Amino acid sequence: MTDLILLRHGQSQWNAENRFTGWAEVPLSPRGEEDARTAAKKLVGRKIDKLHTSSMQRAIQTADIVLSELGMNGVPTERSAALNERNYGDLQGMNKDEIRRKYGEEQFMQWRRSFEGRPPNGESLSDTSERVLPYWRSNILPDIAAGSNVLVVAHGNSIRALVKHLDGLSKEAVAKLEIPWDAPLFYESSETVDGLFITKNYI
Predict the structure, then answer these.
(1) Percent of the chain, pLDDT > 90?
(2) Which of 17, 33, 52, 85 is catalytic?
């Protein structure tokens, strides 16, 4: 059996301020640091052989806190922009409630939650999937195939893209998918072939 654990970074400062973050480099908020410590408590007793993170500060900071809390500093690590958050383009830095009032609920939800809705000068979730899934196949899946227990620390949308693929979710279903800050998503596999993870649950 090998484990795949997906973890969203803790709350960032812009999450706390209800702003679209996207590719902006924003640190964790104090609550975000606590989110990471809470996640670590849920991983006590689990072996982690390999870490994959995005290249963004808030994911790296979350992973550092988790591994420090677990006493696992020094786990082999790969960082890649392929796992970065979705680019929200012109919406980055803007307050979500202000965008909702200005453009209406339907447009707001298209930009924020739909699979193919693309904010001005930004990415859709479909666009995000097109960089996440090649990295999954070329970098993460081989680690699992080699028998490594893998922790992936990334972002709400890059994890949504991966979960859509692993769970075979429809575009409609993934639009409703929320990824919590402090709840590791755990897949257990007895196989090493893409798509054959046999159980899934939040820890």
Answers:
(1) 86
(2) 85
